[in-house]
Amino acid sequence: MTTDHVSVSSTPNTDWFREHTSRLSGSDVDAPLDDLEPLRDVIGDARVVAVGEGAHFVGEFTSTRQRVLRFLAERCGFTVLAFEFGFGEGIALDSWLRGEGDDAELAAVGGTTNAGVNPRMVRWLRRHNRTSSHPLRFVGIDTPMAGGRLRPDLEPLAEYLREVDPEVVGLIDRALGIADRFTGGSVAVAAPGWARLEAADQDALTASLARLSLRFRSMEPLYVSRGGRSAYDVALRHLEAALHTDYMFGAMRDVFTGQGLEGDTSVRDHHMAESVRWHLDNADPDTRIVLAAHNNHIQKTPVYFDGELAALPMGYYLDRVFGADYRALAQTHTAEQVADMSPDERAESGLTVAEEPLDTPEPGSVEAAVIDAGYGDDISLTNLREAPVGRLDRIRTQSATQLTPVVEAFDGVLTVPTATTYYTTGLREE
Fold first, then answer.
1. Which DSSP string corresponds to 4-38?
2. Which of 230, 247, 263 is the last residue of a domain?
3. What residues form the membrane-spanning segments (predicted)?
4. 37 Cβ partners below 8 Å, 6+ apart?
């Protein structure tokens, strides 16, 4: 793509971007990292640094994120990679990434590829952990299978309860007996399936998990005495993930039908934020986490679409908890098309992905400022930490443009000139 057709003007945004943007050398994951040194001024001493993406299934976002991961691990001491990926599936994937099993066994590792945990990323991570003196532990923070299934968290929970309280395993069997009738590859499958259940079955699923949650918490001293503190804490996170997934079945059904409550999807984002905090609380005091998720999840400001509150995002909660110890780095692009997702129950993942054409970036957007400053054909990094508040009020998200106070939402932005679709529905594919 070239930007010759775009009128380059001298505006306050243009002048500021010229002074605070640096060109990166490219997307070669194994290239030297000196060009990323300006990133230090963006992240400071933060314990949690989020690296976003403006759309899922974009190859350039994956490659650029990998280079940032290398920089943060090798030069800044980050040791944990937290992903918009199921908590339960993350445990299994981390074992594989640390070298357990052979390459072929990746096919048996569950989890969604929606947020960039794709074959390209995970195979690179496994090589990195084998060869680098700065390996990264992998953790999941999200609901299981992009909100599509309960088994990835309820099965290990049942295994734990068979050891400490076998008489209540029946509550999990009851929940799975209902859930297995409608769940699938993502919430785009599960939510419509949940809506087709009889109201009595919907209530029975929720009641089973609620009863289990109340007993689980009240029996904590007994469970810990029988199975240890660490096992209890992990099992409780599995239970929390299942509870939030059950809530999101109904919340997303309402979103898909245009009847959602204001900000209802905040439930998922709050769960992810609490998962990040849980991982930090259970790590060494000097642990630093790289957090990978969609821009809409990592931003520090509420997410609005068409003037209505869509969600209080994970980054909003993390900013409230950690303050300066949380930094958010968005990724966007100046391309003329991008991959976008549409719900489709007939698809294995519940989604179809197709490239959508885009209009020229709007005035006041990050993308227009990057182009006008002369960086539209480059991979670039802009430090927003000292940017004038109010001059940037929009950024691309999927195939749309989101109105948001960009400088308040993000500490920096990585921009790429192309957005090539890289779509997989499982980790076994290449």
1. TTSPP---HHHHHHHHHEEE---S-TTS--GGGTT
2. 263
3. none
4. none
Q: Please report whether residue 333 resides in a domain.
A: yes
DSSP characters over 238-277: HHHHHHHHHHHHHHHHHHHTT-PPTTTTHHHHHHHHHHHH
Enter the DSSP assignment of 361.
Answer: P
In three-state form (DSSP H/G/I as H, E/B as E, the rest C), the secondary structure along 331-346 is EEECCCEEEEEEECCC
Dihedral sign from CA coordinates of 267, 268, 269, 271: positive
Which pairing describes strands 394-397 and 400-403: parallel, antiparallel, or unpaired?
A: antiparallel
Domain around 374? 22-142+288-429
Cβ proximity of 85 and 406 under 8 Å: no
The amino acid present at 400, given as its one-letter code, is A
Question: CA distances (Å), 229 to each of 109, 140, 144, 316, 428, in order?
Answer: 27, 20, 23, 30, 35
Do 169 and 242 lie in a common domain? yes
Task: State the maximum Cα–Cα separation within the chain, in Å, rounded to a whole number.
Answer: 71
- CA distance linking residue 376 with residue 322, whole number of Å: 33
pLDDT tens figures, 242-271: 999 999 999 999 999 999 999 999 999 999
Contact 325, 44 (CB under 8 A): no
pLDDT tens readout for residues 297-353: 999 999 999 899 999 999 999 999 999 999 999 999 999 999 999 888 788 788 899
